[in-house]
Amino acid sequence: MKTLDRILFKLLLFFVRSPAKEACAEFFGTLFLVVCGDGVMATVTLGRLGPHGVVVSAIGWGLAVAIAVAIAGSVSGGHVNPAVTFALASVKKCPWKYVAHYMAAQYLGGFMAAALVYIVYYGKYKFLLIFVKLHFYSMKRLTARQSRIVPL
User: Residues 44, 52, 50, 58: is their CA dihedral positive or negative?
Assistant: First the structure.
């Protein structure tokens, strides 16, 4: 009987809506969205995929949004974006009392995800920065007439 009570209690806790659960769902949803989305963009940018990069980035971002909303959707509504949270609160689709902890979790998830992507791609990113600096340094010496020809 105690085991059944424990199972029922855990099951009830699963369905109880709490600010901590909702904030965690928004955090992990936003974390997944930014890690996958920015990871795809870093791969496309640093991997030199050529014309296929557009398709890869579109599919990657689309899947990232869909899965992030699926992660947070059943618990908190799946906003996974502070702008969406604010917009839904503005039109009274989300109570204002949830906005603060949703946004805090979303910002924290976004910053954590950006840090993860930066750590993963640090070596290639550092190389890209050196290349960009050298490129712009060489561009400074162009005359006005030469600078019109270079983009062609």
Answer: negative
Architecture of domain 20-121: Up-down Bundle (1.20)
By the 8 A CB rule, do 82 and 104 touch? Answer: no
pTM of the model: 0.70
- CA 92 to CA 23: how far, in whole Å? 19
Q: Per-residue pLDDT tens for 16-29?
A: 667 788 888 889 99
Q: Find, among 97, 59, 61, 65, the residue nearest to 81 by Cα.
A: 65
- 41 near 122, Cβ under 8 Å? no
Cβ atoms of 28 and 72 within 8 Å: the answer is yes
Distance from chain centroid for Cα 117: 10
Contact 105, 24 (CB under 8 A): yes
Domain coordinates of the chain in residue numbers?
A: 20-121
